[in-house]
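step: validate -> pass
step: tokenize input -> pass
step: predict -> running
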Amino acid sequence: MAGSTLSIGILHYPVYNKNKEVVITSITTSSLHDISRTAKTYGIDNVYIITPLKAQQELVRRLIAHWQIGYGAEYNPTRKEALQDLIIVNNFGECLQDVTQKYGQRPVRIVTSANIQKKKNIAYQELYQRIKTTSQPHLIIFGTGWGIEKNLIESMDLAIKPIYGQGQGDYNHLSVRAAVAIILDRIYHQNK
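step: predict -> pass
step: emit ->
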């Protein structure tokens, strides 16, 4: 298949809490299941779980082991297949380094946000065309909590436009698993 690869990262630090303090958010196992299944459905190459907390990393490892080699591997083989693409890293730098090593060049770094960024915005269709027609790998970072820390956002190459639904007002505070599903569908589905 022509085109580049697409990886995603689920960032648990540095992100904001509701008081705009930089924090580390907790990993939720249901999000890991849902995100990995969504990523597998859309052919995403790697799903990075980014957290510096060793206890949270161990939680992810135990979950993966249950579905890869434990009872879960026999009980639900499709879950086993989906979870095989999860990669645990300590920070965004390790994520970036791993993608660069795997594909031999630095990826285009793309951030998601509930707010329009002042520069670097890219529409879903334009991103799809980039992925389809270039060889450079792409990496989309999804924040948890109340959004990705501003300096990390500023360091990115591009920003995907925010998701706006059809509800009343400007509410767009989605769970990360919902945002992953919507964004991947908007990138790939509308272009078929």
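step: describe -> The chain is about 40% helix and 20% strand.
step: cleanup -> pass
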